[in-house]
Amino acid sequence: MGKIYDALEKADKQEKPAEGGRAMPERQRTEKAPEENVVQFVGNALKHSDTRLDINLITYHRPQSVEAELFKVLRTNLLFPAEGNPPKSILVTSAVPGDGKSFVSANLAISIAAGLEDYVLLMDCDIRRPSLHTCFGYGTTRGLSDYLNGQAPLETLLHKTPFPRLTLLPGGRPPRNPTELLSSKRMRTMLDEVVHRYDDRFIIIDSPPPSMAAEVAAIAKQVDGVLMVVRSGKTPRSAVTDTIEQIGKEKILGIVLNQAQQSVKKYYGYSKGYYRE
């Protein structure tokens, strides 16, 4: 597991500027600087224009929008709690599919990484239907499922994103036995490593709804807290109650209300819901 730590440390060092200059990845320092709005991904070494980033990464495409500001509010509430220490590991889930958990996971991770000193590891644990890799401009790529299957070392699956201090672990290729993989000792050991060893970064985990994947409740026990995403006017109240019971009320950090019509939107001249996916 020391290799995982070394890989993240190496990625972090590539982001930190040297005195009087701007940092570039090691292999680029002797080459021509990349064009503006072109980003270098560590992992498969492909260059991607920012136009390939999902339009729903609003904290990047529209950082001054009301939606992006609301993610800053969410970030502040999490990082500066009224009492106690901020949660370093956060699992984001929903009561039913389609509520926007991946949308919230990605934008929250970007918002935290946009700070001056906080590093983030964003993990796609929804290996049945992984989606975060496409949000960040990747096609089919290896990820968590490949590690759990023993087909690749974890440190080779970590990808840099266009956002300083944000590293992505994609979900990988959908396996035939997702429940067994996510419930395995290998998964528990890996989570324990990234959650407890890396005290210099936040861990954001995008997971499937507990109603669709029984192992989510077990994963939730290993993190500091859980954010639930609920779609306004759509998610059944009974489904929310059942999910909270499965996870444990003491683990719930709060609920993000998605696609809600609120007066603050009208104040700023917006008519659509808070968040969209």
UniProtKB/TrEMBL annotation:
It holds the Pfam family ParA. The keyword Transferase applies. GO terms for molecular function: ATP binding; protein tyrosine kinase activity. Residues 1-33 are annotated as: Disordered. One of its GO terms (cellular component) is plasma membrane. This is CpsD/CapB family tyrosine-protein kinase. Keywords: ATP-binding, Kinase, Nucleotide-binding, Transferase. CDD domains: BY-kinase. It comes from Desulfatitalea alkaliphila. The keyword Transferase applies.
